[in-house]
Design a protein that fits this description.
By secondary structure, the protein is of the alpha+beta class. It folds into three domains: 65 residues; 169 residues, Regulatory protein AraC (Jelly Rolls, Sandwich); 103 residues, Homeodomain-like (Arc Repressor Mutant, subunit A), CATH 1.10.10.60. The chain has 13 helices and eleven strands. Strands 1-2-3-10-5-8-11 form a seven-stranded antiparallel sheet. Strand 6 and strand 7 form a beta hairpin. Helix 5 runs antiparallel to helix 6 and helix 11 packs across helix 12. The longest helix is centred in the N-terminal third of the chain and has 32 residues. The protein starts with a helix and ends with a helix.
Length: 355
């Protein structure tokens, strides 16, 4: 049975209200061990109803208080805050809808944004683990330090790939709306693509991490503060992307990136790349990962899978033909890699997303 105590434990209220509610010494259900059974048999429905009324009163007081503050509407087990901007003027330039810090390990975490009832702009940044984002037939692996920016509804999808549940996918996301967001989104998409890298200590990321921590500690947003935060986020995001920390790759890595882009259709291994640069495979993999943020095998696989996505949607080639065209040794191996990357088989992907 739900008790007043359990509701209080998960409810943040103004100090005077909390003090009054703490005068309720025990849940009503503790009457069971101190009352004769024949009395409880007659009055148990009444006690249950009284307990329920108290709980609903607490929740109603909580929601009324939040609404008057123009503040938190929901908070769920994933660490997500939703907002209701009551009293705010209509058609504001920017409105914060919800944001959160989440950790997902369930492969059912999969969202198709073509017909999803979740309109607005979505920014999602990976803190640890890995996920996947697809847009217009291109796959963008979401590794630590990688973000994607989406305008829903659109032809995109993000999900937890098969096998990624072993390491989880931890990310922070921001969901907002408003006409002022459009120019920022178009500028970022045109110049930096659908997915890009950002330092974890950069201002646009720390802004939401700090806010999440503060709200866990009881902070309440003031009226219009959500829109103000979104504007600070968008302007700092664009500024960070336009002025990245200078990073010069070593010659072996630049050479290998060019080679993979030009020859990914051919059969070669990471050992072959290492030998081309006079390096051991282990050392080559280590410096490649350090300088690019992903392993050489993952980078090569991404190039091949992206080309495979294009061929699946735009040609009538068989799965076996596509496998060979994309540098895979055979169709069976291609299907295994494709399923691990996208969560479905090549044939299923073609049926689902083809014209």
């Amino acid at each position: 049975m739900i008790s007043v105590k359990s509701v209080l434990a998960n409810t943040r209220l103004p100090a005077p209200m909390t003090a009054i509610l703490k005068l309720i010494p025990v849940p009503l259900s503790v009457l069971a061990p101190i009352c004769p059974a024949h009395i409880l048999a007659h009055f148990w429905p009444l006690l249950f109803l009284l307990n329920l009324i108290i709980i609903l009163t607490i929740l109603d007081c909580k929601n009324n208080y939040m609404i008057k503050k123009g503040n938190i509407l929901t908070f769920n087990q994933y660490g997500t805050y939703g907002f209701l901007s009551a009293g705010q003027m209509p058609d504001t330039p920017l409105t914060l809808l919800d944001f959160g810090l989440e950790r997902r390990c369930d492969e059912t975490y999969d969202f198709d944004n073509r017909s999803r009832d979740y309109a607005g702009y979505l920014f999602q940044y990976t803190l640890s683990g890995q996920g996947a984002f697809e847009a217009e037939g291109t796959l963008y692996p979401q590794m630590p330090g990688t973000a994607f920016f989406s305008c829903i509804p659109e032809n995109s999808r993000y999900y937890l790939p098969s096998g990624a549940h072993e390491t989880n996918w931890e990310f922070i996301y921001v969901h907002f709306t408003g006409p002022a967001a459009g120019p920022f989104f178009r500028e970022i998409q045109t110049n930096y693509g659908r997915s890009f890298r950002l330092p974890a200590d950069s201002f646009p990321i720390q802004l939401w991490l700090n806010l999440h921590r503060d709200m866990n500690d009881g902070r309440q947003l003031r009226l219009y503060e959500g829109g103000e935060l979104v504007y600070r986020f968008l302007s700092s995001l664009l500024r960070t992307l336009e002025s990245p920390v200078e990073h010069i790759m070593s010659h072996p890595i630049e050479k290998s990136l060019r080679y993979m882009k030009a020859h990914f259709r051919e059969h070669f291994s990471i050992d072959d790349l290492a030998r081309q640069n006079g390096l051991s495979s282990a050392y080559f993999t280590r410096i490649f990962t350090r300088e690019t943020g992903e392993s050489p095998l993952l980078h090569l696989t991404r190039l091949r899978i992206n080309h495979a996505l294009f061929l699946l949607l735009n040609t009538q080639m068989s799965v076996e033909q596509i496998a060979l065209e994309c540098g895979f040794s055979c169709g069976n191996y291609f299907c295994k890699v494709f399923r691990r990357a996208s969560g479905c088989s090549p044939a299923e992907y073609r049926r689902r997303y083809g014209a």
